[in-house]
Amino acid sequence: LMELVRAAPRLERFVYVSTAYVTPHRGDGVPIPEELVPLAADATEMLAEIDAETTSDAVWLKRTGYPNTYTLTKAIAERLLYERRGSMPLSIVRPSVITASRATPFPGWIDSTSGFGAFATMMGLGHLRVVVGRPDARLDLIPVDDVSDRVIAEAHGATAETTIRHATAGVALSPTVNECWEEIQSYFRMHPIDRRPARRYLGPAGPVFALADSFHHRLPIALAHLSTPVRRRQAKRLASRLDYLNDVFPYFTTRSFDFRCTHPLPADHQPRAFVRTVCRGIAQHVLNQDERQWTLAGRQHAGHGGDARW
């Protein structure tokens, strides 16, 4: 893209959306500044080796200390853009965990179950009951409209210098993992959709997690495999989603990232209340529920098409 637009006569600025997690976790409370991250090797050489496919993903991650190839390749891309920018005005915007809107077009707007949306949806539906995480770890949730605002602001930046901007909430305005679970459970118990949300385990990976995961996730899924072909397909998809969440999310649910931000969220932003806004948005705009209705007798209530609602 940079090479494509380099010759554009009216180009004012090139804005690249990266991720705040290009900086590997250095410890809770260690500040993460808005600056380029040192790489383990020259970025051009790393790109050539990736293109040649001579090294496995596992070796790359072990060599560089990154949790996944997504964050690693974002870090390489940042460095390549910086090195090859020439006289082009460049801005890099780094969002953290993007989720529902805070205000625009209205609070709670969301159309995706990726990232935290998947986490909240599976908990709210009562399927995700066992989570690898640390209750007091801060989960940096950034509203999607705040990310958009910061991208637009950088696009209109007057400076000719390269800028790096975090689009993050920061530790003080980030809910804990425990607060997220409590708010998700509270909302979807009041507005149930599928199984009743239940928290069975929140803690480190290990034997206790494995036991809880087997009993509360794998056993119900195995029983579903004994049912109809449709139920078997549904169970297979559900098992894949649950495994994915407890494979990818622990990097974020067991650590707190102290992102420093030039343009922070408003000081009156309330992290717990925002999690509830996210839940409301998922229920309405992803799961197509009307929170004005109150479930009375659940899915098995006879004569009401599966639900009795007011």
What does this structure look like?
This protein has 310 residues and is mainly α. Helix content is 42%, strand content 10%. The chain is built from 11 helices and 9 strands. It has a 3-stranded parallel sheet with strand order 1-3-7, sandwiched between helices. Strands 2-9 form a two-stranded parallel sheet. Helix 5 packs across helix 11 (271-286).
Short description:
This protein is mostly helical and 310 residues long. It has eleven helices and nine strands. It has helices at residues 2-5, 43-52, 57-64, 69-84, 116-124, 144-155, 177-190, 207-224, 229-248, 250-253, 271-286; strands at residues 14-17, 31-32, 90-95, 97-99, 130-132, 141-143, 163-167, 201-203, 258-259.
Keywords:
310 residues, globular, disordered C terminus, 11 helices, 10% strand
What low-confidence regions span 5 or more consecutive residues with pLDDT below 50?
Answer: 297-310
- Overall spatial form: globular
Helix tally equals 11
Using the CA coordinates, give the radius of gyration.
22 Å
Helix-strand string: HEEHHHEEHEEHEHEHHHEH
Oligomer: single chain
β-sheet strand percentage: 5-15%
Arithmetic mean of pLDDT = 91
Neighbour order of strands in the largest sheet? 1-3-7
User: In angstroms, what separates the terminal alpha carbons?
Assistant: 53 Å
What is the number of beta strands? 9
Q: Helix share of residues?
A: 40-55%
